[in-house]
Amino acid sequence: VRYELLELGGVRKFASAQVATQIARVFMQQVAGVMTDNYPLKGLYVFAEATNLLLVLAMFPATYGLSGGGSLFAVNVGLGLAQAFTQPVAKSLPPAVVAADDLAVVNSWDLTGDK
């Protein structure tokens, strides 16, 4: 989405989307951290991935100009927020789905691509 926004919207819109995404991510990660402590992790993860899917599907009409001018900007920021929410949930998920004997192996994997 970033490159499409750069090509279609120009440098100013691209930079604005990146700044908006980073500022919003700071708050979204805090919300995700609190939610991982209080709600079932599997349900949160499925919800987050469903949100990612919807945003990816929304990217196609936005990329080809079939929706309003700010759509690609909104999809870019939305995907950044969805990823900011998914990351803490994904990092907390292994103990809920893996046997205790296998947890050391799973914890050594790069589950979120942030390393």
Question: Could you characterize what this model shows?
Answer:
This protein has helices spanning 2-38, 41-63, 71-92, 94-97, 103-107. With 115 residues, the protein is mostly helical. The model has no long low-confidence stretch (mean pLDDT 78).
Pick out its properties.
single chain, 5 helices, 115 residues, elongated, 79% helix, mainly alpha
Layout of SSEs?
Blueprint (H helix, E strand, L loop, with lengths): L1 H37 L2 H23 L7 H22 L1 H4 L5 H5 L8
Helix pairs in contact: 1-3, 2-3
Percentage of residues in helical conformation? over 70%
SS content category: mainly alpha
- Report Rg: 16 Å
Total strands: the figure is 0
End-to-end CA span: 22 Å
Instruction: Provide a count of the helices.
Output: 5
Report the major sheet: none
Apparent shape: elongated
